[in-house]
Amino acid sequence: MPRDSGDGAGLFVRYAYPPNRLGYCGPEDVDALVEYSVSAVSDPGLRQLVMAFDGAYPYLELIAAAAGIHDPLDRRVVEAYWIGNRLLMNVDMALLGRSVTERFRKRAGRDWDRVAEAVWAGGLAHHSFHVFAVYPWAGLMREGRIDEPLHVMDRCRIRWGKVHAVEEDSVAVVSRPLEWVDGALILSHPQVEVVQASPTVAVAVGDWVSLHWEWVCDTLTARQLANLRGFSAHHLRLVNEELAVPLEAAVG
């Protein structure tokens, strides 16, 4: 576990900025977030912006409290949510369930049982849990609506790729997109995709990087890569188990 606890807010912005710029989540002041994302400055104003991500920030609070860490924007906590690390194992399942219930039960409607089952099946306070289990996309796929949910889940999850080429404003990476095969979500064969380079993340050919939507978020160490793969695979198994239940049984 890294000891560095600094600049967790700046790290959070690297991961949260891509969907925010598309209007999917977070504060409306996109321009301010853009400035922070390119300046690498961390100050109280940035913290206020981060707290406005009401989907992600409560997970940080859970992770920090369970680990006895005072600051939810401690870098180790931020890494746990987006990438994954051992701090996730400290979060009590009942507390995670209560948090998700309070925030998403009304929004989930008849899909709520599916979300609750994912928590008790081993869900963790990781971004992949939120994408695969809390968002409604798996439920839509169960109903036969595949294309849009598949695209959003693939882009919204934090995925990993190996840098193949670097241009001035873009990076070509080899990654494995989600694919829908025989009623299950799997990782497809490696493919080259071109994504937006980050002005605050220096990359080189051969580096492993994390990706969110069409954006490079950070470089990954071997430990971080293994964690991201492992926690993502864990929640992919959970959603596939849920998708395997016949629709009639799922809705009672």
Structure description:
By secondary structure, the protein is an alpha+beta fold. The chain is built from 12 helices and 7 strands. The chain has helices spanning 8-21, 30-39, 44-51, 57-67, 75-82, 93-108, 112-120, 127-134, 137-142, 147-156, 222-243, 247-250, and strands spanning 159-166, 170-175, 178-181, 184-187, 191-196, 208-212, 215-219. The strands form 2 sheets. Strands 5-2-1-6-7 form a 5-stranded antiparallel sheet. It is globular. The N and C termini lie far apart (44 Å). Residues 1-5 and 246-252 have low confidence and may be disordered.
Largest sheet entry: 5 strands, antiparallel
The SS-based structural class is: alpha+beta
Form type:
globular
Number of helices: 12
Spatial strand sequence of the major β-sheet: 5-2-1-6-7
* Low-confidence parts: 1-5, 246-252
- Content of β-strand: 15-25%
Average residue-wise pLDDT: 86
Q: Sketch the topology as an H/E string, one letter per element.
A: HHHHHHHHHHEEEEEEEHH
* Rg estimate, integer Å: 18 Å
Q: Helicity range of the residues? A: 40-55%
Terminal CA distance = 44 Å
Tell me how many strands there are.
Answer: 7
Give a quick summary of the entry.
With 252 residues, the protein is an alpha+beta fold. It has twelve helices and seven strands.
Name a few traits of the molecule.
252 residues; alpha+beta; 5-stranded antiparallel β-sheet; two-stranded antiparallel sheet; 12 helices; 15% strand
